[in-house]
Structures are given as C-alpha cells and as structure tokens.
Amino acid sequence: NGFSAIDRTNPSNVTNLTEGEEAEKIFAMEMVNGVIYGYDDAGNFFTTSAEAGFQRDYLGGHGMEVQEPYDEIKNFGSYVYYYTYTPKFTVRDVAWDASTGRLLALGCYSVIKEYYYVQTSTGAASAPYAEELEAVGGCAIYEVDLETGALTVITNIYTEGGDDYSGVYAMTVTDEGQVYVYSTYMDFIATINLDTGLTKNIATFQNLGYYGDSDCHSMAMTYDPVTKNIYVLFTQNGNAYFLFKYNVVTTMISSM
Q1: For the purposes of burial, counting CB atoms within 10 Å of the CB of 127, is it exposed (0-12), middle (13-18) or buried (19 or more)?
Q2: Among 99, 124, 127, 223, which residue has the least CB neighbours within 10 Å?
C-alpha cells in the first residue's frame, strides 16, 4: 500500500508520495478538505492526510454483519468436490457528495467460494481454487458516519427492470449530487436515482477492447469538477493499468 498524486492536467503522470507499507489493503478512499477518509479490506474505517505523513488513524468500521462461513461436499462419482463459502461485505468505494455535505459509500455483499476436488479412484487432490460470487443483498449506496465509519443505507442498486445491479465496483459523485457507478457485469457506467435505486446505463467500454476480459475490471473512478471528466482506472490482474475518461457534458468516452 502506498499513496500517489495524479497530475490533473496530465492524469497519466503519477508521482509516488509514500513507499509501500505492510498493512491491510485500502479498498476505498476520498479526500475532503485535505482529510482522506477510507476503508481497508478488513472493513476498518480510517482517516489520514499529507500532514500526518499518510499514517492511518483508525476510528471504527462499517459495522455490517455477515453470515458465518459454511462448508459443502458434492459427490460426482469420479470426483468429490469440497467447498468452503465465506460471506463478506466490502466497502468498494467512497465519494463526497458536495450537494448534501455527506460521504457516500458503495457497499456490496459477496461470497468467497474456495474449493478443491479429489479423484475417488486415486485419492489425488487438485490445487485449491477461489472465486468471488455476488450474493443476496447485492450492492447499495450508504451514508458514512465520519466519526465512526458506521453505514446507513440510502438505497439498494437496481437495474432499470428492478433486478439487482451486479458487479458494481466503483462510484463517484458530481458537484450537483449525481451518482455514477461502474459495473463489470456489462462494462457500463450508469447513473443512480438515490430515491429509487434504479440505474440508467449511459456509457460502455465494450468498444475499447476490454469488454469480456474477466481479468480486467475497474478499480476506481473519480469526478473532476474542473474538466467535467469522470476518470476510470482499470487494472488487469494488478499487473497492468489503464486509464479512461468519460465527459459528463459531451458524453464522449476515450482512453488516455
């Protein structure tokens, strides 16, 4: 984990501000009046700043409850599969809503499925596998208590047809209070109506060559009120990074 600065006039110009540190991975953060608010992978809520040398001050956590892990065994005759399911809740992004003066969080329920199989005739076991599955409860927009990190739900996120909007990994808010999210399910940027939770797909990355690549998904998105651009950062297995922008005025989308 480390902190970097991105040049507004040339967002591909990145300056490292700190060296990496051994700590819980940061999953979401936002700067408000010089203070950075964030959540790590374990659900802990913290603040930090440049003045504090980017040292984290932990204040609490999201407080969302999940089920206990559970196991399952399936016998397919020639092979027996052993599964472990670990439900989890993750704050995947946070964004400041200047129109209401509150910090919003994108939180999602999911299940980590870990498994291996054993060949019944030989007893040979496979290598372990793991994948993250969307879970009942889906994703929602929450308001963050800046003193404790506790979350209060504002609305669940739905498709225009009323189904759970799957694979939501990033969020940002314009100065006017319009919430945008990014879904890896169909590589769409969508707006959200916070009164109803309904989304409207407005832009897709399908034509930029990354649609259908299961290793390539959005890590973060942020709105720049000066340029009116939403910048979307993709990663591919954590080894390569790609930056794109969507202009909320022209509705143009392009790579950088």
Answers
A1: exposed
A2: 127
Q: What is the pLDDT of residues 240-254, one digit of tens each?
A: 567 788 899 998 887
What is the C-alpha separation between 58 and 200, in angstroms, rounded?
36
| Cα 56 to chain centroid, rounded | 20
Q: Are 37 and 146 in contact (CB under 8 A)?
A: yes
For the record, the structure tokens of 45 come out as: 């809520």
User: Which amino acid is residue 35, in one-letter code?
Assistant: V
Spatial strand order of the sheet with 151-156 comes to 70-75, 79-97, 102-119, 129-144, 151-156
Note the pLDDT tens digit of each residue in 199-208. Answer: 988 887 665 5
User: What are the residues whose beta carbons fall under 8 Å from the beta carbon of 200, sequence distance 6 or more?
Assistant: 160, 190, 191, 193
CA dihedral sign of residues 175, 180, 181, 182 = negative
Question: Residue 128: how many CB atoms within 10 A of its CB?
Answer: 11
